[in-house]
Each structure stands twice: as structure tokens, then as C-alpha cells.
Amino acid sequence: MEKTSQSPYPLLKIAEIQGRGRGLISTQPLKPGQVILKDSPLLLYSASPLIPSNNTFCSNCFKIILQSPIPCPMCTFSAFCTSSCQSIALSSSHTPWVCQSLTQLRNILSSHNLLIDQQIQARFLISAYDLALISPSSFRVLLSLQGDPSFISENDALLLHSLVATLNPPTSEFGFSKELTAALLAKDKVNAFGLMEPFDSNKERGVRAYGIYPMASFFNHDCLPNACRFEYVDSDVSDRSNVDMIVRVIHDVPEGREICLSYFPVNFKYSDRQKRLKEDYGFICNCDRCVVEANWSDHDDDDAMDNEGEENEDEEDEVMEEEVDDEVNANDEVEEGDQDFPHAYFFMRYMCNRENCGGTLAPLPPSDASLSTVMECNVCSNLSKCDELMV
Predict the structure, then answer these.
(1) Can you give the residue ranges of every domain in the chain?
(2) What one-character DSSP code corresponds to residue 344?
(3) How high is the pLDDT of residue 387?
(4) For labeling, which of 64, 66, 261, 339 is most exposed (least CB within 10 Å)?
């Protein structure tokens, strides 16, 4: 049974879903490409190690800096694309304490020998404890998100807490303790989204920053998602912040259906998906796709992925159309006898075929009452006509 609570977003509501924790379900039928969420981050923090910045990205909006950067007046870690971004940051995310803390941490790196991941976690903790002071209400929201402190190594929590303690964190109503630090690290581990670099087929896609998005954190994972997220960090926008997360549904979704994202590219093979989910999020996936692929060997998995874009015989196409009707429109369980490769249609229809991309395709948002026939990749931003994808 689902126990629902009120949500400020009209197309979604938060529900306690048996065996999956809290999730988001649709409050009405959704159309392909429909924007169901525009979410602003509670906090953003750089994904760079604790070294002097090369001032490539703005430390407030994380856009690439195209003109002469405006430096932070107190440290070498931060630079800004405009005086407006500088002013906003100096009164919020880059207060004097944050600035001083980053400088101190860099100076003690040689004695602590922090791993890069630990350096980035330290950045998060500095941002989080700063948030507790400048916006207690946002900090309460952060604490309300899912994340079990037992998921964090006790040694890591103790090391990072000790480091932050040397920085004389600001006094807030929430206090400062090892338990709170461990709780914050857990919130970050299972809820942070990466703000990604634009796609480049010749190199691995990097992360500019990590953000905690209060509503998007409730999206559960599915290896065949019915929605995907878009980010336009370098774009100039008037109706939202450039660091907002945009989530669109991929295909028709009925009222009352859970909306799920994939936490990584959908072309990951079964063993890699399960390893990633267990290590990073602490659960084993039992979605319909994983139930089928659990019986495959890794060789079978690779063969299936290699053949994902090939044409099928007419009879096989007919069966596949029946399967997608079940999966896309009703999301029923896989029928016995249709278990060889029930997600082949998803790969053909909704996975970008650009080299080294691995992104997911969703239609552009509907215009008035008309559905778009143009699909956009959420990784490389390539646009394709729907009929081209079926060739």
C-alpha cells in the first residue's frame, strides 16, 4: 500500500512505496516530453580537488567563464563570471568562513594525504555547515532527505569531521558533532547529482559540481526509466536558473505510476549496474530488466548490447510492439515466453546512438496540444526525428 504526502509540485506526489522507500508518482496522465519537474539545488559545491582553481568555471553558477574572470578577493579557489555572481556567492555559498576553510584545508593536505574523493567530501561538508548558518530552513530540508549514516565508513566520517573541526565551523542551531557530520555525508552520498560538462566524444565527461536537489532526490532508480533529467549549465535562460534540473517523461505515463530515473547510462551491463548501485546507493536492483538479465552470463549481456540497434524480422517486430505496449503504456510484468530481450525496443527507441554517448532520448516538450516528433539526448543534446530512430 502507498501512503502519500502533499507535494508542492502539481504533476508529482511523494509516496512511501513498499520495498523502495519514498518515491514520486504521477498525479495525472503524462505525455511524452512533458516537463514534470524544474528543481533548484539546496546547495552546490565544486567537484574539483582542493587545489588552486584555474578559474575556468564560475564558482557561483558554474558556467564556463568566457571573459576575464572576476577573482575572489580573499582566496585563489574561486572566480566568477560576473560581478553579480560574485556578490551572490560572497553572501551565500562563498562566505568568508568558506573561503578561509578552503585555504586552510589546502594547506594541511600534505599531512593528511586526503584522497580526491575525500577532498570533495570536505568541500561538501564546508558547504553544508555554511548552509546551516545562512539558511536553516534549507538545512532542515537537507537533513530530511534519505541517507543512513551507517552507510558511511566510520573512519572516513571521523577523519572528515576532525578536519572540519579544525576550521572552527560557525555556530548554528544544529550544533556540530560527529553524528551530524556522518548524517550529512550519508545525505550527500545517496542524493547528490553531478552537474556535468558538455558532451565531448573524444574524452570522458567530467563533473563540474555536485548539487543536492530537494524534490529530485525522491526519484528512485529503474534500469529502464520512464523519465530522464536534462541540465543546461552553460545556457542563458530567463525562466529559471542555469543550474536547475529539468526532468521530462520519455513516453506516456498513466496516473499513479512511479516516475523513475536511471542513475547512470542505460547501456551499462547487468553486473556493472548491480555493483554500482550496491556500492554507491546500498541496494540491489530488482526491476523487470534486471530480473531478466540476472539469468544471463556477461557474454550474453555483451551480445545483447552489441545487437541493440539492429533490425528485427517482421514477426519479431510484431512481438516487440506488443511488449512495448505492455511496458510503456501499462508497465506490466514481463510475460512468460517474452523474456529473451524485452527491453530491446527501449534501446532502439530511447537510447542515443551517437558514439561514446550512452544518453537517453526524450521528446521535446509538447507545444500546446501537439506532441513533438523531435527527440533530444540528455547527454549530448543531439536532436533526432522520431521516425529516424526506428530505421
Answers:
(1) 10-38+207-275, 42-192
(2) H
(3) 64
(4) 66
